[in-house]
Specification:
- With about 230 residues, the chain is of the alpha+beta class.
- The chain has a five-stranded mixed sheet with strand order 1-4-7-8-9. A four-stranded antiparallel sheet has the order 3-10-2-11, with helices on one face. A two-stranded antiparallel sheet has the order 5-6.
- Helix 2 runs parallel beside helix 6 and helix 6 packs antiparallel against helix 7.
- The longest helix is centred in the last third of the chain and has 18 residues.
- It starts with a strand and ends with a strand.
Length: about 230
Amino acid sequence: MVVSITATPEWRTVHPGAAIGLLELSNLDNTRPALQLDGRKRETEARLRERYRGFTRQDFLSLPVMAAYAQYYKRFDKTYHVLLQVESIVLKGKPLPNVSPLVDANFMAEVDTLVLTAGHDVDKLLGGVCIDASRDGDRLTQMDGTTKAIRAGDMIMRDTKGICCSILYGQDDRSPISVETSHVLYVAYAPPRVPAATLEGHLQAIEHHVRSVSPRAVREQQQLLVA
């Protein structure tokens, strides 16, 4: 069943100009090591190191997409974690991690395009989902089981049971991708000034990586929500 996805008026009011990219894929296999992705990972690492050769943090922050996220995080006195991940690959020589095919496909695209994306197991989401702005009193149980009070004004996603994901605090402990996941919803969160074409290219990159592991994947939906 295709996930029903809506956006609240509060999200559109609090985050004018923001956008959400959505990609839902089914008929997936996440049970085996993604050997097909290893070569792509090495290519991605080499491409990033060549693209950003000699970069300082200020150089990274001057990139238009990175700057848009940095401005969003600065409002909450936080640092965009994808910046830290790209720095670790480029400046410290760290490799891309091996988690699972569906997670690794997302992460490869994320460090390449700089677009923040969460991946959810559709079978663990309850009812439809909505993109919203957090309010005072909202709480999220993070992937490590820690319950976190969410600051008002963050971009979040809810299902009928509660908050599934927050830009600032990440995903919940209920719906992340696991080895059993065969139906996934990727949600890309973009603050203002991230071009729609960048979001669309990012979703296409995720799907391209996923299909290298699950060639019979079915695209249930792909869409952009714009505030």
